[in-house]
């Protein structure tokens, strides 16, 4: 029996190193990587994968040079504006997960506008992790449970996570050759299958994604059992 893939999560790593191998500025790697997002989203729709979560900007990314951080945030804004029609055309529900309150009001407005425009779409739940850290998410979720006066248990904490609508992660992929989770979806990926590839994100192809997904489908997922 084949495993069903409901929630795919990806750590999009390797943009800067991809650019370096081509003697380009790091920002060129981020530009190239942004183009792959559309390919992966289309793959999910074609293959009935209901939920996609992409790690775009972590709580630790603020440590990067100011010029690169500013470029990434401007690129994010351009992505949201430029891809708006694609989200609408393909009925993709957009949601930002993470603490976006630190972003400029202009960027927050663009994020909120796209979330509102696509709120009723059902072909794909597209979660973009922005100023996201899993430990921060878990702490914020716990505070929400306590503020509501609910019991702090596994079910209630899960229900108050940023990505609660998408459920647990089935398959988590990291590109770029590093073998670590980097504070991404730690709660949701407790029993996820993990796949690491040396391919830099800008070179990550639909064919490679399809191969990883096919390998996932035949895995023996025991969830702690036999």
Automatic annotation (TrEMBL):
Task: List where the protein spans the membrane.
Answer: none
Organism of origin: Campylobacter hominis (strain ATCC BAA-381 / DSM 21671 / CCUG 45161 / LMG 19568 / NCTC 13146 / CH001A)
Give the matching Pfam families.
Prenyltransf (PF01255)
PROSITE patterns found in the cross-reference section: UPP_SYNTHASE
Q: Name one GO molecular function term.
A: magnesium ion binding
Q: What is the name of the gene encoding this protein?
A: uppS
Question: Where is the catalytic site?
Answer: 13, 61
Alphabetically sorted, this entry's keywords are: Magnesium, Metal-binding, Transferase
Q: What protein is this chain from?
A: Isoprenyl transferase
Keyword Transport attached: no
Q: What class of enzyme is it?
A: transferase
Cofactors, names only: Mg(2+)
Which biological processes are named by the entry's GO terms?
polyprenol biosynthetic process
* GO CC terms, sorted: cytosol
Q: Which family does it belong to?
A: Belongs to the UPP synthase family.
């Amino acid at each position: 029996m084949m495993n069903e893939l409901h929630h795919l999560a990806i750590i999009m790593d390797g943009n800067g190193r991809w650019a370096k191998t081509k003697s380009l500025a790091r920002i060129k790697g981020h530009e190239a990587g942004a183009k792959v997002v559309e390919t992966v989203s289309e793959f999910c729709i074609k293959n009935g994968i209901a939920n996609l979560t992409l790690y775009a900007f972590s709580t630790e990314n603020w440590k990067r040079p100011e010029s690169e951080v500013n470029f990434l945030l401007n690129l994010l804004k351009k992505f949201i504006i430029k891809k708006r029609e694609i989200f609408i055309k393909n009925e993709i529900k957009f949601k930002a997960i993470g603490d976006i309150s630190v972003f400029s009001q202009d960027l927050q407005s663009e994020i909120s506008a796209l979330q509102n425009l696509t709120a009723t779409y059902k072909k794909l739940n597209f979660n973009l992790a922005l100023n996201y850290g899993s430990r921060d998410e878990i702490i914020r979720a716990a505070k929400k449970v306590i503020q509501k006066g609910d019991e702090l248990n596994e079910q209630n904490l899960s229900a108050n996570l940023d990505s609660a609508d998408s459920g647990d992660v089935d398959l988590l992929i990291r590109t770029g050759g590093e073998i670590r989770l980097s504070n991404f979806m730690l709660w949701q990926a407790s029993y996820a299958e993990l796949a690491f590839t040396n391919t830099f994100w800008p070179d990550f192809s639909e064919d490679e994604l399809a191969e990883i997904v096919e390998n996932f489908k035949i895995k023996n997922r025991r969830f702690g059992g036999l």
